[in-house]
Amino acid sequence: MRLQLNTSNLKESRQGFWLLIDLLMLGLLILNLVWLVFDWLFVSEGFRDFLATINPDLVDAYAPIHRNFFFYDLYFVAIFLTEFMVRWIYAALTREYKRWYFYPFAHWYDLLGCIPVTGFRFLRMLRIISIFYRLQKYQIIDFTSLKAYQFLRFYYEAFMEEISDRVVIKVLAGTQEELRSGSPLLHRIQQEVLLPRKPLLVSWLSEKVAHAAQHAYLPHRHLLQRYIAARLDQAIRDSDDIKRLKLIPVVGTTLSSTLERAVSDIVVTTIDQILRDLASTENHQFIEDLTEVFLHEKPYEKGDLDEEIIQACIELLELVKDQVHVKRWHAHLDPGNNQDLGPSSTNTSPAGKDSPNKLP
After folding, report:
1. What gap in Å lies between CA 223 and CA 272, rounded to an integer?
2. Tens digit of pLDDT for each residue in 296-320?
C-alpha cells in the first residue's frame, strides 16, 4: 500500500506551516546524512579507488571538500539550530510545556545532533524519526498501513516479547527459590503488609459481611427459620432422652412438647439474632475480634499449613511461568494452529520449518 497524504487532517491540525518546515528539514537532514556517510567512506582508500574507477576527477575535486568538511557542516548546523530556536520560542509562547526551559530536555536529540562531532552527527537520524512521528501523530500520513512498518513492528514486538518473557521467568524462578529455601514470606506479608492495614481491612470486611448478610439472609429469613425449626424438631423427636421423658405418666407428653418448642425457639432466635447482627453496620467489633485471630503478632513458627500454602504458591508461580512461555507471535506466523496456546506451544518449530512464514 502506498503512503498517502491526508489533506483534511492537515487542515484540521493547523500545522500546514510547520509541515512545510518539517518537509524542508527532512530534505536537508537526508542530504546531510547522505553526505556524512559519503564523507565517512571517503576516508577509506578502497572507496577512493572505487570512485577513481568511475570518475578519476571526482576524487581530486572532492578532496578539498573533505579536508574542510567540518566548516561545510557548520552551514547545516546553523540551519538546524535556527529551526530549533524558532520551535523553542513558539513552544514557550504557546505554553506547550509547563516551563519554557523544558523544550531542550524534551528535544535533546535535536540539540545534541547539532554538535559538529562525528559521534553526535548521527543523532540527526532521530530528528527524521521525530518528524515522521509528528506526521503520524496528526494523522497526516499513516505509516501503519505500509508493509515495511508492519514487518518491522511484528519483529520488534516478537523481540520485546522474547526479552520480557525471559526477565519475567527469571524473576518468578527467583521467587520460587526463595520460597523453597524457607523464606518466611507468609509471616512477612502478615506482619508488614496486613497488620499495618488492620483498621482498613476490618472496615472493609465489616461492609462486605453486612452487605452479604442483608442480601442473602434477610430476604429469606423465614425460609431459613422454618428449615432450622424442622431440623430441630426431627432431632429432638429422635432423641432417646426426649423419648424417655414422654414415658413419665400424665405430664410426660406435655413436658416433651414444651421442651421441643423452647429449644427450637431458643436456637432459631439465637441464629436469627447473630445473622441480624452481622447484617448490621454494628458488626465492627465482631469482625475485629475475628480478624485478630488471623492477624496476631507472635514469633514466626513454620507449620504444616504454611508448608502447604508455600507449595501452593510455588505451583501457582509455575503455572504463571508456563503461561509466560507461550509465544504469542507464533500465532501470527501460523494462525491455523493457535487454538491450543499453552505450555506445549513453547516447542513450536521456527517459522519456515513446520509453519508457513506468514508476515503481517
Report:
1. 12
2. 655 555 555 567 777 788 888 888 8
